[in-house]
């Protein structure tokens, strides 16, 4: 592709990558009347009493085990648990539970800008419809909290520095394996994902990788975990934190998805331990 084509591609993806951001900015400025008309719940979509009427044991597990025990475990902060949980709900397109967990995330220190970036990131990893459903669920939460567009990252930002040597190696491997199968996918993987989306500064590289790994586990996409978990740990995610992510994910993505991912995590932990010992 010539320079003019490259510029057009970057411009197109800067616009596309900003769709969810612009939608959130517009919704955040919608006004107090709309917020008063439909206030988002600060509780789960079903109250404890409503759950108890249908499934008393589930109510007990929700209040005592999930919210009372799992969320207080020490090896993953409440903020990180919120990020993992939001990633699961968006990846699995479960917007009815989002308002409660969005409010919880904001209370736990996740910023509006980080939420905006999580939604935008997952448009690429879980699909545009899921991200747009998340935008709709987030709008009333932002409106009620009077979160305005100036608290959200712009569509066009100064990108983080690119590790060109490492990314050239990644791009070459992808091109050699799949360039003849799907050249468009290969092109956008480099230009849109790794040289644009992943370099946006509104979400720290560690957190961006944590979102990606959570979405992959929640979606049962085991084949992609190795690369992204290693990337997360290279960016500062510890083994204890990665392990505790699985505990959180078991409750929100289900035991089968987590048990499918466990061998991959085990293998990565072992290889990184051996590598650290050899240094």
Q: What's the number of structural domains?
A: 1
Which term fits the overall shape?
globular
CATH class assignment: Mainly Alpha
| Rg calc | 20 Å
* Total number of beta strands: 0
Q: Strand-residue fraction?
A: under 5%
Looking at the chains present, what oligomeric state does this protein adopt? Answer: single chain
- Low-pLDDT windows of residues: 29-37
Compact summary:
This protein is mainly alpha-helical and 279 residues long.
Characterize the structure shown.
There is one protein chain. The protein is globular, with a radius of gyration of 20 Å. The protein is 70% helix and 0% strand. Residues 29-37 have low confidence and may be disordered. It contains 15 helices and no strands. With 279 residues, it is an all-alpha fold. The protein has one domain: AhpD-like (Up-down Bundle), CATH 1.20.1290.
């Amino acid at each position: 592709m010539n320079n003019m084509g490259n510029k057009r591609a970057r411009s197109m993806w800067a616009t596309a990558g900003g769709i969810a951001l612009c939608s959130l900015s517009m919704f955040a400025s919608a006004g107090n009347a709309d917020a008063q008309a439909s206030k988002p719940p600060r509780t789960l979509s079903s109250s404890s009493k409503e759950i108890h009427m249908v499934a008393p044991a589930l109510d007990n597990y929700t209040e005592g085990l999930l919210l009372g025990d799992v969320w207080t475990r020490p090896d993953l902060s409440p903020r990180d648990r919120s990020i993992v949980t939001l990633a699961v709900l968006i990846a699995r397109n479960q917007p009815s539970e989002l308002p409660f967990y969005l409010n919880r995330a904001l209370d736990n220190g996740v910023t509006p800008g980080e939420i905006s970036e999580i939604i935008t990131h997952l448009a690429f990893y879980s699909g545009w419809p899921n991200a747009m459903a998340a935008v709709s669920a987030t709008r009333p939460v932002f409106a009620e909290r009077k979160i305005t567009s100036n608290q959200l990252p712009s569509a066009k930002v100064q990108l983080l520095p690119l590790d060109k040597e490492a990314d050239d190696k990644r791009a070459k491997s992808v091109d050699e394996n799949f360039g003849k199968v799907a050249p468009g996918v290969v092109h956008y993987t480099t230009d849109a994902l790794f040289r644009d989306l992943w370099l946006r500064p509104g979400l720290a590289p560690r957190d961006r990788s944590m979102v990606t790994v959570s979405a992959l586990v929640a979606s049962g996409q085991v084949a992609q975990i190795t690369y992204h978990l290693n990337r997360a740990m290279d960016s500062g995610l510890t083994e204890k934190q990665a392990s505790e992510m699985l505990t959180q994910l078991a409750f929100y993505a289900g035991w089968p998805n987590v048990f499918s991912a466990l061998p991959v995590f085990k293998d990565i932990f072992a290889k990184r331990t051996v590598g650290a010992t050899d240094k």
